Amino acid sequence: MTAAMRGANDGPASAASASVSASAPAPARSNIPGLLVDVSSLSRWIVDENDGDLVAAHLRLTGCVEADADFALLELAESCVEGCAFSACDFSRATFADVAFSNCDFSNCDFSEAGFTRCTFSSCKFTGANLTESMLRLVEMCDSTCAYAFFTKAKLEDAAFRATDFVHADISEARLRRAAFDDVRFAGTSFFRTSLAGVDLSTCQMSDIVLSDTMSELRGCSMDLFQAAGIARRLGVIVKD
Hints:
About 10% of the residues lie in helices and about 30% in strands. It is mainly beta. Strands 1, 2, 3, 5, 7, 8, 9, 10, 11 and 12 form a 10-stranded parallel β-sheet that branches.
């Protein structure tokens, strides 16, 4: 587990892995628990404590359970979100900066056009979540699942993903810049019209990924011999032992 993930329970998230972006600016940090306001229901806190204002910072959300709640245009900064379950909630066009997410469930939530900057995700679940046209910049995600999630036309910049599941996720027409994947599972994942140039996939599990007829998405990426042989077979090349 990285230092960024180890610090998730002590304060806001740190920057993404230095191996992805060594020049990334360090986020503002506050490791003093007293500076974080404990919140057990985000929707109630917004109404009762924040006068309905969707701009919030320095919160520690713990054990929140919300379903079908409207958090569109939420702005959350320098906070921790731990052990929360948000089911089919609307986070469209929300922005998150310097936020550490751990052991959270965002299944079927709408994060379309949302922005994440200097955020970490540890053991989080985004099954079926909609992140269409979202921006993930300077983020780390580990031991999580994005199965059946939609990253269509999303932008992943200086982003690191480790031990994470993207089974049947849609990452089509996305823009990847300095994105790193380690021990990531891509099965039935769509990369249609997404350039993987400069991406190292050699430690990842890949099967039945969706590409265009020309497979141009793979031009410039790195694979191991076994992966390359699988792609060659799809092109009709007979690979001999």
